[in-house]
Specification:
It is globular and about 50 Å long. The chain starts with a helix and ends in a 5-residue tail after the last strand. The chain is mostly beta strands and 157 residues long. It has 1 helix and 8 strands. The protein has an 8-stranded antiparallel barrel with strand order 1-2-3-4-5-6-7-8. Helices cover 11% and strands 39% of the residues. It has one domain: Lipocalin, CATH 2.40.128.
Length: 157
């Protein structure tokens, strides 16, 4: 009996040693991510068995004093095609939803762009542990645009 336990423990140790360092796992996308211009910080988190994300903070959370519609007020989802949703504040707004891990360093789901009020299909892939390739597209990934987000930290912590 004790021989089996020793064999099992050795087997587990060999398995752990054989696992590549920095291997991508489904939860690798969880955390805070800066957009390329560092003007927004997104938080990606689990929502049930899927992954979702929201704007955690904005470099400029308020409209400038020169804005004709809402000078000095918090930025809202004013380009949303649904008028009832246009007063939602951007900070805290869920924009990434329905993402699932497809395996082999690939996640797929949907992403909402408040700049144009459109929702796009989206793929994520990791490039190391601190770079996230975010590809939004219509129809097929070939007809899309990729941004590289870098791992960040919550500015409130």
């Amino acid at each position: 009996m004790s021989g089996r336990i020793v064999f099992f423990v050795l087997f587990l140790i060999m398995l752990m040693a054989a696992a590549p360092a920095g291997a991508v796992v489904a939860d690798s996308v969880i955390g805070f991510w800066n957009t390329p211009d560092h003007d927004a910080l997104f938080e990606i988190y689990r929502c049930g068995s899927l992954y979702c994300g929201k704007i955690s903070s904005l470099e400029e959370p308020d409209y400038p004093p020169t804005d004709k519609q809402m000078p000095g007020k918090p930025k809202v989802d004013r380009n949303n095609p649904n008028p009832a949703l246009r007063n939602r504040t951007l900070v805290g707004l869920p924009l990434i939803f329905g993402f699932h891990y497809d395996g082999d360093n690939s996640w797929s789901g949907m992403i909402y762009n408040p700049e144009d009020g459109s929702t796009y299909r989206c793929n994520f892939s990791m490039d190391g542990e601190n770079r996230l390739n975010v590809r939004g597209y219509i129809g097929i990934p070939l007809l899309g645009r990729t941004q590289i987000w870098t791992r960040g930290r919550d500015k409130g912590r």
